[in-house]
Amino acid sequence: MRRHQRGLTLLEFALVVVVVGLLMWLAMTKILRLEADVERVNMQRTVAALNSALAMEFAERVVNGRLGTVPEMAGTNPMDWLAQVPGTYLGTLGPAEAGAVPEGRWYYDAQQGLLVYRVAHTGRFESGVEGVPRARFRVEVVEHPRDGSPQGVRLVAAELFIWK
Protein backbone atom coordinates (compact mmCIF):
# COMPACT_ATOMS: atom_id res chain seq x y z
CA MET A 1 0.00 0.00 0.00
CA ARG A 2 1.43 3.26 -1.09
CA ARG A 3 0.88 6.44 0.89
CA HIS A 4 0.97 9.83 -0.61
CA GLN A 5 3.04 12.30 1.35
CA ARG A 6 1.68 15.71 0.99
CA GLY A 7 3.70 18.92 1.51
CA LEU A 8 2.62 22.50 1.61
CA THR A 9 0.90 23.93 -1.40
CA LEU A 10 2.13 27.22 -2.76
CA LEU A 11 -0.87 28.99 -1.26
CA GLU A 12 -0.24 27.52 2.19
CA PHE A 13 3.43 28.43 1.98
CA ALA A 14 2.57 32.02 0.97
CA LEU A 15 0.15 32.27 3.88
CA VAL A 16 2.80 31.08 6.34
CA VAL A 17 5.29 33.62 4.95
CA VAL A 18 2.75 36.45 5.31
CA VAL A 19 1.87 35.46 8.90
CA VAL A 20 5.54 35.15 9.92
CA GLY A 21 6.31 38.49 8.26
CA LEU A 22 3.44 40.15 10.10
CA LEU A 23 4.61 38.73 13.43
CA MET A 24 8.16 39.92 12.74
CA TRP A 25 6.90 43.40 11.86
CA LEU A 26 4.87 43.56 15.11
CA ALA A 27 7.88 42.39 17.13
CA MET A 28 10.22 44.94 15.52
CA THR A 29 7.72 47.75 16.12
CA LYS A 30 7.50 46.80 19.78
CA ILE A 31 11.29 46.52 20.10
CA LEU A 32 11.83 49.97 18.58
CA ARG A 33 9.20 51.44 20.89
CA LEU A 34 10.92 49.83 23.88
CA GLU A 35 14.32 51.15 22.77
CA ALA A 36 12.88 54.68 22.62
CA ASP A 37 11.36 54.20 26.08
CA VAL A 38 14.76 53.07 27.40
CA GLU A 39 16.36 56.20 25.93
CA ARG A 40 13.68 58.43 27.48
CA VAL A 41 14.08 56.81 30.90
CA ASN A 42 17.89 57.06 30.74
CA MET A 43 17.65 60.75 29.87
CA GLN A 44 15.20 61.34 32.74
CA ARG A 45 17.43 59.36 35.11
CA THR A 46 20.43 61.51 34.19
CA VAL A 47 18.41 64.70 34.71
CA ALA A 48 17.25 63.40 38.12
CA ALA A 49 20.85 62.57 39.11
CA LEU A 50 21.94 66.05 38.06
CA ASN A 51 19.13 67.64 40.07
CA SER A 52 20.20 65.61 43.12
CA ALA A 53 23.82 66.68 42.68
CA LEU A 54 22.77 70.33 42.35
CA ALA A 55 20.61 70.04 45.48
CA MET A 56 23.55 68.55 47.40
CA GLU A 57 25.86 71.36 46.25
CA PHE A 58 23.23 73.92 47.27
CA ALA A 59 22.87 72.27 50.70
CA GLU A 60 26.64 72.23 51.20
CA ARG A 61 26.84 75.94 50.41
CA VAL A 62 24.01 76.71 52.84
CA VAL A 63 25.60 74.63 55.63
CA ASN A 64 29.01 76.23 55.08
CA GLY A 65 27.57 79.76 55.11
CA ARG A 66 28.17 80.36 51.40
CA LEU A 67 24.59 81.11 50.37
CA GLY A 68 25.83 84.23 48.59
CA THR A 69 27.76 82.05 46.10
CA VAL A 70 24.66 80.12 44.95
CA PRO A 71 23.75 82.56 42.12
CA GLU A 72 27.14 81.73 40.55
CA MET A 73 25.80 78.22 39.86
CA ALA A 74 23.28 79.49 37.28
CA GLY A 75 24.36 78.68 33.75
CA THR A 76 27.20 76.38 34.83
CA ASN A 77 27.82 72.87 33.58
CA PRO A 78 25.74 70.60 35.85
CA MET A 79 27.98 67.63 35.00
CA ASP A 80 30.65 69.33 37.11
CA TRP A 81 28.62 68.54 40.23
CA LEU A 82 28.39 64.78 39.61
CA ALA A 83 30.82 62.42 41.32
CA GLN A 84 30.85 60.31 38.15
CA VAL A 85 29.65 61.57 34.78
CA PRO A 86 27.68 59.25 32.49
CA GLY A 87 29.64 57.34 29.86
CA THR A 88 27.55 59.11 27.22
CA TYR A 89 28.88 62.55 28.23
CA LEU A 90 31.36 64.02 25.73
CA GLY A 91 32.41 67.12 27.69
CA THR A 92 32.33 70.79 26.70
CA LEU A 93 32.07 71.29 22.96
CA GLY A 94 32.25 74.32 20.72
CA PRO A 95 29.74 75.13 17.99
CA ALA A 96 31.82 73.41 15.29
CA GLU A 97 32.11 70.18 17.29
CA ALA A 98 28.47 70.16 18.41
CA GLY A 99 27.27 69.53 14.85
CA ALA A 100 29.02 66.16 14.79
CA VAL A 101 27.75 64.82 18.12
CA PRO A 102 26.52 61.23 17.74
CA GLU A 103 22.98 60.32 18.76
CA GLY A 104 22.41 59.34 22.37
CA ARG A 105 25.18 61.57 23.75
CA TRP A 106 25.33 64.50 26.18
CA TYR A 107 27.55 67.56 25.83
CA TYR A 108 27.83 71.00 27.37
CA ASP A 109 27.50 74.07 25.15
CA ALA A 110 29.55 76.66 27.07
CA GLN A 111 28.69 79.41 24.60
CA GLN A 112 24.98 79.14 25.47
CA GLY A 113 25.38 77.74 28.99
CA LEU A 114 23.26 74.68 28.12
CA LEU A 115 23.60 70.97 28.71
CA VAL A 116 22.45 69.20 25.53
CA TYR A 117 21.24 65.66 24.90
CA ARG A 118 21.31 64.50 21.26
CA VAL A 119 18.27 62.25 20.81
CA ALA A 120 18.75 58.87 19.10
CA HIS A 121 15.12 57.82 18.57
CA THR A 122 14.05 60.90 16.68
CA GLY A 123 10.70 59.51 15.56
CA ARG A 124 9.45 59.44 19.15
CA PHE A 125 10.72 62.91 20.15
CA GLU A 126 9.45 66.43 19.42
CA SER A 127 11.05 69.73 20.34
CA GLY A 128 10.88 73.33 19.28
CA VAL A 129 14.63 73.37 18.63
CA GLU A 130 15.65 73.77 14.99
CA GLY A 131 18.04 71.27 13.45
CA VAL A 132 18.89 67.86 14.86
CA PRO A 133 16.52 66.58 17.58
CA ARG A 134 17.92 67.40 20.99
CA ALA A 135 16.86 68.34 24.49
CA ARG A 136 18.59 71.30 26.10
CA PHE A 137 18.79 72.07 29.81
CA ARG A 138 20.12 74.91 31.94
CA VAL A 139 20.99 75.32 35.61
CA GLU A 140 18.58 77.72 37.26
CA VAL A 141 18.62 79.22 40.75
CA VAL A 142 15.23 79.13 42.48
CA GLU A 143 14.64 82.39 44.31
CA HIS A 144 12.28 83.22 47.15
CA PRO A 145 9.33 85.19 45.71
CA ARG A 146 9.48 87.96 48.33
CA ASP A 147 13.14 88.70 48.97
CA GLY A 148 14.87 86.99 46.03
CA SER A 149 17.14 84.91 48.24
CA PRO A 150 18.27 81.57 46.79
CA GLN A 151 15.98 78.69 47.76
CA GLY A 152 17.54 75.97 45.62
CA VAL A 153 19.12 75.07 42.31
CA ARG A 154 17.64 72.87 39.60
CA LEU A 155 18.10 71.70 36.05
CA VAL A 156 15.27 72.86 33.79
CA ALA A 157 14.48 72.30 30.13
CA ALA A 158 15.47 75.30 28.02
CA GLU A 159 12.60 74.50 25.61
CA LEU A 160 9.57 72.28 25.82
CA PHE A 161 9.92 68.80 24.39
CA ILE A 162 7.83 65.64 24.44
CA TRP A 163 8.45 61.95 23.99
CA LYS A 164 5.68 60.28 22.00
UniProtKB/TrEMBL annotation:
<keyword id="KW-0812">Transmembrane</keyword>
<protein>
    <recommendedName>
        <fullName>Prepilin-type N-terminal cleavage/methylation domain-containing protein</fullName>
    </recommendedName>
</protein>
<keyword id="KW-1133">Transmembrane helix</keyword>
<dbReference type="InterPro" id="IPR012902">
    <property type="entry name" value="N_methyl_site"/>
</dbReference>
<dbReference type="InterPro" id="IPR045584">
    <property type="entry name" value="Pilin-like"/>
</dbReference>
<feature type="transmembrane region" description="Helical">
    <location>
        <begin position="7"/>
        <end position="28"/>
    </location>
</feature>
<keyword id="KW-0472">Membrane</keyword>
